[in-house]
Amino acid sequence: xxxxxxxxxxxxxxxxxxxxxxxxxxxxxxxxxxxxxxxxxxxxxxxxxxxxxxxxxxxxxxxxxxxxxxxxxxxxxxxxxxxxxxxxxxxxxxxxxxxxxxxxxxxxxxxxxxxxxxxxxxxxxxxxxxxxxxxxxxxxxxxxxxxxxxxxxxxxxxxxxxxxxxxxxxxxxxxxxxxxxxxxxxxxxxxxxxxxxxxxxxxxxxxxxxxxxxxxxxxxxxxxxxxxxxxxxxxxxxxxxxxxxxxxxxxxxxxxxxxxxxxxxxxxxxxxxxxxxxxxxxxxxxxxxxxxxxxxxxxxxxxxxxxxxxxxxxxxxxxxxxxxxxxxxxxxxxxxxxxxxxxxxxxxxxxxxxxxxxxxxxxxxxxxxxxxxxxxxxxxxxxxxxxxxxxxxxxxxxxxxxxxxxxxxxxxxxxxxxxxxxxxxxxxxxxxxxxxxxxxxxxxxxxxxxxxxxxxxxxxxxxxxxxxxxxxxxxxxxxxxxxxxxxxxxxxxxxxxxxxxxxxxxxxxxxxxxxxxxxxxxxxxxxxxxxxxxxxxxxxxxxxxxxxxxxxxxxxxxxxxxxxxxxxxxxxxxxxxxxxxxxxxxxxx
Length: 589
What we know:
This protein is α/β, with parallel strands linked by helices. The chain has helices at residues 5-10, 13-40, 49-102, 123-162, 188-197, 200-209, 221-259, 270-291, 352-372, 404-423, 438-447, 491-494, 504-512, 569-579, and strands at residues 105-107, 114-116, 309-315, 324-329, 337-342, 381-387, 430-436, 453-459, 480-483, 532-533, 539-540, 546-547.
């Protein structure tokens, strides 16, 4: 029986994820019991018919329990996969409904029929509505077809485990014999060569059975997104369980402190574990919110298909305090213009919802500039918010005064840039790097490692550890730019005396002798003659649009706060560089 939209609405991905957890627990229990029974055979020292019967019985019990464990694992894997697919189906349905409502169209939840709610329409309005109606109907048909597939896959997994339906092992079960992926030290081009060498079936099996192993630089962004969407609900469920356990342990810890403080050393660090568990869950929730955005009332927010969001990085293993992620906006794999933003102090995956919105505004403004310049394909723009490292937690974090975190992060960003470069399907792709705050130092160090990046903009930078802009190894024709608001407090990291009103700059000059190399991160961009300054001041851009200026440390990529998603002059200039349009930038302070 074909499913209806009403059926999809009633699906509960959280309940399906509970099936995954229960089946996993059952599988582990059955396997452990079977192994224990098998171990008992070792200790049967008597002989004769009774001993033979005991061994035979134990062998049968172990085999039965092992088979049951495998069945439970298959159900668990299928449920895990289905929960992610259901979440995606429901989000797609909410987007379809939002678009239909905006166009004054009604969708029948049982039949999927689309009808008009409007009583009076002009000819042009009717034409537009008909076009949207046709698109909505096509998307509904595809949605129902995909939902039927999910439903059948899960049912088949359960029936196979029950023994009521013969057939092949369903998707999501134990991974078949697949070629092993390259080592962790393999370069993106080596990873791409391995991936391209797999058959289509092997690639599909990796996505379904082992998506975590292909979340690597050198794997196409769309493939990483597909696998990471499957992983995300499970990772969130694990983080929630870890947080519950951490809260329980922390409660017991303080009880022990109050009753027997001398014995707490053996308890480890439950308060610290709780902080880390909460931080990781906050990061995962931030990734979910960025990938599936909502309105202020919690309802799903409709996303233009051209702004489709993708989860290009989901790293839950490399850092005990944080989960790392990267959200793409637009067709990252095929876009001609791709911009990657690296955040700075205080940025983490929980920041990704706001960064993804900023990336969307950046994409729209870049598209507008390309349209203004009569580019034949102005929509060919994609932006990425990359949070693939741990920056200093705040300006009061002592780590903000050294480059340890930046040097640890730079190779990962270098690899990410190169991964995008080797997987693009656009022969003319131009990549732009944006580095904010401490992220500008990370970006500078990453580019010095060799990347396909053509242009770069550093903004709110504490320093670049860069002898000359030529050491960035930008692609031919590329340029380096910077933005700095007059009142950005980041300058205090390099020149603390300069923040003293009136006499500060003079005192700073006396103390440092005007030599920035004595400072923590060497020269700031404004001290390097081969890096061009872009305006952050209010004014009219080359498209004749009036824009507000920026102040402080955080407003560079943000809109002007007027509710129209219009970027400030600083944000416009970021888009102008990304567009690659000659004469589009507005230089100066």
